[in-house]
Amino acid sequence: MPRATKQSAAPFVPDTVDLDALSDAAGGCRGCDLYRDAEQTVFGAGKRSARMMLIGEQPGDQEDRAGQPFVGPAGKLLNKALEAAGIDRDLTYVTNAVKHFKYVPAERGQRRIHKKPNRTEIVACRPWLVAELHAVQPDVLVCLGATAAQALLGPSFRLTTHRGERLHLDGEVDVAGDPDVFVTIHPSAVLRGPDRDEAFSGLVEDLKKAALAL
User: Fold this and answer.
1) Rounded distance, CA 57 to CA 91, Å?
2) Could you give the percent of the chain with pLDDT greater than 70?
3) What mean pLDDT do residues 206-213 have?
4) Which among 28, 47, 122, 38 is positioned nearest to 92, based on CA atoms?
5) Domain boundaries, the chain
6) Does domain 10-212 fall into CATH 3.40.470.10?
7) Among 13, 56, 103, 118, which is most exposed with the fewest C-beta within 10 angstroms?
8) What confidence tens digit (pLDDT) does each residue in 161-170 have?
């Protein structure tokens, strides 16, 4: 097993665009300390031919246990929003900026509560996200939430300022194809919000804008 440089997944990322090989390699990543408490690495899911890639923050409690992204409550709401926007999730690739679940320890029998990854952890995990981008080469990227947007567009990026706009990668990440980038809220923000109907409608409208770019 390769030795990781401090807080970087780069030594663990193989030089390949084979998603199965990347996923297998990610299972042994020790690029930051998040692997110590997570059940497993949660890599992206979908076809290499996907034209749209959806990027969230990190796996949650259910994703960590299942080893698949967006299978918990937020994932179910995302499925509903994609359907409402006329997007077939089976034709998308879904992943997260951070591949291990970071959480606050819970009492016995209770669900573990998500804790936001810090900038060091986001940057450490970014080589996996870049590898996925090189493998899939999507036409459209949809960043779900501020963490995903800042992973690709820099720490000063503000989702509220640029939500729903057509953007482009400009230095933080270099990938082929110059995909269109859209940013919107994370589905979990809909679940937590005071007005779920309004928040859900906003998410759907943002996804529709992204779909029009395909």
Assistant:
1) 20
2) 95
3) 97
4) 47
5) 10-212
6) yes
7) 118
8) 999 999 998 7
Predicted pLDDT of residue 174: 76
Q: Is the pTM of this model over 0.70?
A: yes
In contact, 19 and 135? CB cutoff 8 Å: yes
Query: What is the CB neighbour count within 10 angstroms for residue 190?
Result: 24
pLDDT of 111 > 80? The answer is no
* Per-residue confidence (pLDDT) for residue 171, from 0 to 100: 67
User: Given the structure tokens 């016995």, which residue do they identify?
Assistant: 108
Whether the CB-CB separation of 151 and 126 falls below 8 Å is answered with yes
State yes or no: pLDDT of 4 exceeds 70: no
